[in-house]
Amino acid sequence: MEVITTHVNADFDCLGAMVAAKILYPDALMVFSGAQEKSMRDFFLKSTGYALNFTRLKDVDLTAITRLIIVDCQHSSRIGRFAEILHRPGLEIHIYDHHPESSGDIVPTGGVIRASGSSTTILTSLLREQGVEVNPTEATLMMLGIYEDTGSLIFPSTTTEDFHAAAWLLEHGASLNTVADFITQELTAEQVSLLNDLLKSLKTTELHGVEISIAQASVDYYIGDIAVLAHMMRDMENLEALFVVVGMASRVYIVARSRISEVNVSEILQEFGGGGHASAASAAVKDLTVIQVLEKLEKVLRARVNPRRTAGDIMSSPVKTIDAGATMEEAREMLTRYNVNALPVVKDGRLAGIISRRIVEKSLYHNLGQVPVTDYMHSEFMTATPGTGIKEIQDYMIGRNRRLVPVLDDGRLAGVVTRTDILRYMHNGEDLYDLARAPVPMKSKEMRGLMGRTLTPRILQILHDLGTVGDSLDVPVYAVGGFVRDLLMYVPNLDVDVTVEGDGILFAETFAGRFGCRVKSHDKFGTAVIVFPDGFKIDVASTRLEYYVSPGALPTVERSSLKMDLYRRDFTINTLAIRLNESHFGVMLDFFGAQRDLQDRLIRVLHNLSFVEDPTRVFRAIRFEQRLNFTIAKHTENLIKNAVKMDFLEKLGGKRLLAELVHILREKEPIKAIERMASFGLLRFIHPVLELTSRTRILLEESRRILTWFDLLFLDRSYERWAVYFLVLCESLTHDQLWGTCTRLSVSEHYREKLFETRSQGEEALAAMEKKAVRNGTMANSEVFFLLKDLPVEVLLYLMSKTGSDEVKKWLSLYFTKLQNIRCFITGHDLRRLHVPPGPVYRELLDLVLKARLDGKVTSRKEELELVRHKLKKM
After folding, report:
1. Is residue 633, in this structure, part of any structural domain at all?
2. Are residues 195 and 302 in the same domain?
3. Residues 519, 745: Cα–Cα separation, whole Å
4. 628 within a domain of the structure (yes/no)
């Protein structure tokens, strides 16, 4: 049985989302987990024309539920009795919610969780994408949900997706008149009285430089829609952050609204069992009085409200500087290398001025490339301290049209604030063109609970130990990259990569000495590998940046900040970091919108020159797209096409190209990735004539089936899957062309023998077997064995994929399952005891015996010895 439900005190977004989910899950029952808000109860009383088929909770057998579909909620504490079955083995849980930043304790097996104005919007988008039609009644109910949670599409949390969803519903007959009747209702006498009490109690105080407003009241009866009152109060009094606390009968209700990034009301109300958006949230508290809730709220606010940001919060550090003796030409090279628009000029260790890209380019236009930067640098400029307010810097930049403000700490250059930093702060982290200039941190999220639920106790303990060592060395330590990405996706990943804002090798050696591990270090790159006694490994690196002297070249590495370290990575989804130091354990940092791209299932590069600097990222983009079932973002796809058109991949060394190709062919399902490579025109970089023909597609599919069959045999013969797919992919290449490909890719001698030399032997054997199959359809077991015994597994599987003869497939299968393991009972020692003189005759006699065994002519050691004696007599 399937059931669709939502949180208690359901609102119109819950209703709209449940109706939409019912269309996606037509066999599911719609069941409210508890009471509904007053507006919803009024709706059911007044809208008798709507035939909504809801089932009462008391009529549902909880033990019979096989799939639970939850909308607009991720917390077990908010779904009533349905929480009782959450941990039952085999239960599917699909969640559709628009609160990704306030993920709850329910672990879903399906559904969609992403930022949007309403949960109804997400489900409407799914219906729209799948081409599902809705009737006017369903469209109206869904429109109610969107309009309520987006404030008729004007709340700050409203997204473009909400507008698209509303437009689609309008096209399908949604009645805005009906929506208006229920969304824009006049206040009742009770609400007016409560609003008056709340305004009288309203108090605004400053906390960490942020104005917080709190209003409280108590009534003996339930009054609905206090969220409407909170909105009215915020707008009437122009409040930045408002918390409304109302005691009603046995519960205390909290509604919070925020216009500023320093107050994330969703995180704050999670402490009370509630949730919502960063700008709008609510909670219902049992077993506490209004006074107790207010006391707890004050403690939570003191811990959760972020101080107003200063220059020290958003500055970029460490700073790239240029020496006063450098020329304008050298300045241009540095500006381009580090992708910045201005550089501080330093003389004798002290800040002397600022040189901007605009001045440098104009000087070069006038042939002044060899003059020193001090001749044309800005020598009058504002400097800030880490405590300087952002407003002061903002006013300076706008009033004086400056790009950069140096930040000095005791006279030392500690960082810089750029124009992009200010824009990002003003726009609260919205995407701008240059991702590298994001404020620190752009977004953070508490991950301790998710880590505790999904990681093994051992891995969790190791992460704590890494943080402890970081604390002892006074350096920040982070888990980064794919490990964090897969953690968010509930995908097991034991490849732990650690980044240290300090000396990574010293950190690794300290950890190894404390916990009895070994260390392999690489001084050139500042990296190390910690090897545990049982072989488990952790990669450690110092935070660093990379720049490329030319397209396709290996990178030059320099020490840098965490943000710049993450900026050098391939795709946004791999730029997440989790702090491991004890005081910040489990805090995830997202500088470049990785969470958004994970929600949208997109592969996106961080900057436009990504594939120019490192063309191997083209192959990684395809690999991640297929492995994660994501989509390469449109702009990223265009950048790939441009890199192919400009032949940047020709500049790749053969080993690097082969390494990426091997990674793709080792994937569980590599065929779609090969097709994607072909669609981008990448196969010609393996060999100019290589194409993905219809025959190649058929052979690849056949090889996939053959490999699946072979793996299910559980034979004790290891092999490389990638080599089989590579042979199939290159099946159309001639002997000389395959040699050219192996040479181009710098294939090792070991694999060159497998991929090149034995392919010819294998194809000769295949031709002989197919000829036999056509002539009489029979081959002795010994013929099959001696024809195939010297061929590696990869070539045999390639032959099995290539042949169109069922008879040949049967012989190859017989070899794998039976013949390859048959051995003689007798050995050379037995021949020596028979006084056979050593020499080639030993091989001849043993092959004779093995041939007889294979063909069933001898079955025991005694019969084998008799056969040898008989042969010796003849000889």
Report:
1. no
2. yes
3. 31
4. no
Domain ends where: 277, 293, 308? 308
Residue-level pLDDT at 444: 56
Q: Which domain holds residue 775?
A: 686-821
Count of structural domains, the chain: 6
Verify that 847 and 732 share a domain, yes or no. no
Peptide bond into 318 cis (omega under 30): yes
Please give the helix or strand (H or E) that residue 19 lies within, else none: helix 12-24
Shared domain check, 24 and 153: yes
Assign residue 61 the CATH number of its domain. 3.90.1640.10
**DSSP string across 281-345:** EEEEEES--HHHHHHHHHHHHHHHPPPPPBHHHH-B-SPP-EETT-BHHHHHHHHHHTT-SEEEE
This prediction's pTM: 0.56
Question: What tens digit of pLDDT does each residue of 276-330 get?
Answer: 778 888 899 988 899 999 999 999 998 888 777 788 878 877 788 999 999 999 9
CB 527 within 8 A of CB 542: yes
- The domain spanning residue 375 has which CATH number? 3.10.580.10
Model confidence at 533: pLDDT above 50: yes
Distance CA 782, CA 789 (A): 10
Q: For the residues of 757-783, what is the DSSP string, one character each?
A: IHHHHHHHHHHHHHHHHHHTS---HHH
Question: Do 493 and 482 contact (CB within 8 A), yes or no?
Answer: yes
State whether 352 and 334 are in the same domain: yes
Among residues 254, 275, 308, which one ends one of the domains? 308
CB atoms within 10 A of CB 442: 19
Domain check: are 757 and 704 in the same one? Answer: yes
Poorest-pLDDT segment among 306-310, 570-574, 809-813: 306-310
Q: What percent of the chain lies above the pLDDT cut of 90?
A: 50
**What pLDDT does residue 782 have?**
94
- pLDDT, residue 515, reads 95
- Residue bearing the bigger pLDDT, 179 or 120: 120
**Residue whose token pair is 């400056």:** 402
Positive or negative CA dihedral for 124, 127, 132, 138? negative
What sections of 489-633 are H helices per DSSP? Answer: 504-515, 562-567, 594-600, 610-613, 617-628
Range with the poorest average pLDDT among 20-34, 129-143, 645-659: 645-659
| Residue of 118, 107, 62 lying closest to 85 (CA atoms) | 62
Give a yes or no: residue 783 inside a domain: yes
Which pLDDT does position 428 carry in this prediction?
Answer: 46
Residue 18 predicted with pLDDT over 90: yes
